[in-house]
Amino acid sequence: MTEMVYGAIPVRNGEPILPKWWRTVDKWAMSSILLLFAVGLLLGLAASPPLAAKNGFEPFHYVQRQAFFGGVALLAMMLTSMMSPTLVRRLAVIGFVAAFVALALLPVFGTDFGKGATRWYSLGFASVQPSEFLKPGFIVAAAWMMAASQDLNGPPGKTWSLALCCAIVLMLIAQPDFGQACLVLFGWGVMYFVAGAPMIILLGMAGLVIFVGTLAYSYSEHFARRIDGFLSTDVDPTTQIGYATDAIREGGVFGVGLGEGQVKWSLPDAHTDFIIAVAAEEYGLVLVMSIILLYTCFVLRSLMRLVKERDPFIRLAGTGLACTLGVQAMVNMGVAVRLLPAKGMTLPFVSYGGSSVIASGIAVGMLLAFTRKRPQGEIRDFLAKGVKR
Amino acid sequence: MIRTPLRPLARILEARNRGEDPRTIEHENLRLRHEVMHDAARARAEGRLLVLGVFFLCAFMVVGVRIGMLATSEPVEPRAESTGAAISASRADIVDRNGNLLATNFETHALYAQTRQLIDPQTAATKLAQIFPDLDAQKLLSDFTGRRKFLWIKRKISPEQMQAVHDIGDPGLLFGPREMRLYPNGRLAAHVLGGAGFGVEGVSAAEVIGVAGVEKQFDEYLRDPANGNKPLELSLDLTIQAAAERVLDGGMKLMNAKGATSVLMDVHSGEVISVVSLPSFDPNDRPRPAVRGDASDSPLFNRSVQGVYELGSVFKIFTAAQAIDMGLVEASTIVDTSGPMKVGGYRIGEFRNKNYGKISVADVIVHSSNRGTGRLALQIGAENQQAFLKSLGLFEATPFEIVEATGGKPLLPPRWGELSSVTVSYGHGISTSPMHLAAAYSAIANGGRMVAPTILRQPGPRLGQRVMSEHAAASARAMLRKVVTSGTASFGEVKGYAVGGKTGTADKPRPQGGYFEDKVIATFATVFPAHDPKYVLIVTLDEPVETSGDKPRRTAGWTAVPVAAEMVRRIAPLLGLRPGVEPREMAGITLTSN
Hints:
The complex is a heterodimer of chains A (389) and B (594).
Chain A: H1 2-6, H2 17-24, H3 27-47, H4 49-55, H5 61-82, H6 85-109, E1 121-122, E2 127-128, H7 130-150, H8 157-174, H9 178-194, H10 199-219, H11 221-231, H12 240-251, H13 263-266, H14 275-307, H15 312-336, H16 354-370, H17 378-388
Antiparallel strand pairs in A: 1-2
Chain B: H1 9-18, H2 23-72, E1 94-95, E2 101-114, H3 121-131, H4 137-145, E3 150-157, H5 159-168, E4 173-182, H6 190-193, E5 195-201, E6 206-212, H7 213-217, H8 219-223, E7 232-233, H9 238-254, E8 259-266, E9 272-278, H10 303-306, E10 309-310, H11 316-325, E11 334-336, E12 342-343, E13 346-347, E14 358-360, H12 361-367, H13 370-380, H14 382-391, H15 418-425, E15 431-432, H16 434-445, H17 470-486, E16 500-509, E17 515-528, E18 535-542, H18 560-574
Parallel strand pairs in B: 1-7
Antiparallel strand pairs in B: 1-2, 2-3, 2-4, 5-6, 8-9, 8-18, 10-15, 11-14, 12-13, 16-17, 17-18
Helix pairs in contact in B: 3-4, 3-5, 9-18, 11-13, 11-17, 12-17, 13-15
């Protein structure tokens, strides 16, 4: 009482921030991400010296850069995960609008770094890829619209978000960046699915995909050759996939040893798209399995937490973020082992890349903010059920 | 069931009465309804989220299993293999009727460059240009140092050239194995064989596909691995083909013709033993198709099946044979050939305006009288004439199995009235290929049965439907023999082989209408031996001129006939025909007894 009168202890509105954060945050998912980032640094030590040598830097130049950006990313992740879902939503929507405008202005101010696709803004010391930041922002914004559409007297949010999605996909295709376009489309689709897409549409889409695929296979020789080449068991060893397969075989269960790998010298994308091959060669199956386990743990933990979530916006946004990240990892590894046709996609947190790692950090931070434990009115549920009986 | 009203009207009215704001009650109500809805949505989303979770679990497991399988499999030495559909380079041989090789495959190499692996593009380009004089060093260098990573340099190279390229020693110059089509006899039977080129090309193999002739016609059969590389047997005879080409080539030069063609056909099976079209080409190095000028001037043009010409008087025998077949006349029946004869406003004349008067049907053929066959045709009637010529296969492209044959469609009169009937009776107004003529003459020669010309070796006779009676065919053969013994084809006599035949000299039509005065197609259609014919030989010369006399002579009797006779003289022994003692003609003598 005395303290209250004299104001020796400031009055707090509920629990202190850090203890509350630590108590409610999904520690398993967060640890998975931290471990993945550590693995990424470890693999950077192995995979990036050839690139540094080629560009005339000291051997661990890119590891240092990655460590710096990773630090920023982890900081962003922690900060974001401490915010309330409402604040996350507000900031994400603002960020989305900014990224959207940046994406739209790419053809005017962007640069292609001589790679044939205008995807970046050059800032001198680093480059920014707006589409990386657009993805989490779009998912949150779309989830917001969809959730609103479920309310009574709500706006037609599903249609709006689909229109937005199509606009982004078209802009990404124009760059061209089919990988990101597919990811955005996939994120929207997953959210639409969880928001309660009618079964008839789902079945219709599946039927359409099979029908068009069959048609393309039987009428387009080019397409059929691609598929046959992908299905056939023998690999042309001079392609990237061939090198990657070879590296995985060389590595075996325990790997060839630190710094002994060869594939990083022959693969131009060893530090990004094919980093899993480097991991498999130098550290063997053990590390690759650990990486897969970490991603699985992260995605499944997040989804399990979202199952309990009653707020439609949080559930949708969380699902979109977790699935996009998961599918990106899956596609990257699937390509390296020839389960999927070649498509350039980075391994989140593990591959080298400044914008990519920071954007992924922010995305995971938002996801962690969404999956924090919060009261879900379970007791009331229980009581209500009891009353009905 | 108790229905809960959507709006708590009772409470709102109460609140109004109390003077309070009813909106708080409305909001509270909406919130409660949302709570219920959210619970329902969560229950539905639960299932779908579980589906997603299972999907990701399975997907990551599949990736893990796949990596595990790869990691535990044995590393193998990387070998360069082509991806995608395997290219089948195999192609069966082509042989003649005796098994002599006409076309086979030959292993060679293609030369290509991986420009990024070139160590010294400058030297490589210079030395390549020395080895292959047709390459340009400057252009090669710009290709090597340009944007291209991969470059075909030569499609086929010889072992010597390959060694020379090896000696350059640049690792960026590479060789791809190739099957190449080889025609060991060079220009022999070029038009039949056609030629082959490459289809889909890969580094390790390339498809060999036929581009013309039997190579194209039987492309699928030759490339089908299911046939076990069994060679394609043609009806051609290599030796006879060679003799025929040589004689015809000599004849063509001697008669100053610009082109020539011959067809030798077995009259019972329709097998084509030899078919020549000159000028010819080397299928190993097939020239490009002519892009300008007349296609028929290109050596690729196959006169025997594509050359659709008005063949002239050789058609007269069909008119005579049909008239006998219909019972209108006999060989000895007298026909009036005197002029003038006017049909449809046109005068029908004779060669050099001769007038033969009243002569027998046999003599109409022997003297080649236009008015004679014209009058026979008027008796036969246009419809009967059409039906007969159609049954001889003169209205359709021949079924001869080389792709070019489908293009040899006969040209027929647009309206077949009396005038057309008369002109067709002596071979004008109807254009057919020499191959058509050979098939039609075979019907006369084998006793009246149609045969289809074929390039494939046949196991035995292949007689088709009957088109005329034995009697009519026999009479026609006797007339053909008489043409040689005492008619327009007197140069055609080959001792011991009883050649029978009919000449035909047709003025070539001008492209702008009408006929050339000094350009003819001279044809001699023969059957031999005439008393029991086994073969038909058609020889056609394009624009021949025989200049040994005072005036240039262009008629078939002076040009095509001597060439054909020489051909029979050379070929008949090769065909295994024995020279025989012929039954003597009883012409010119009347046996009387006192």
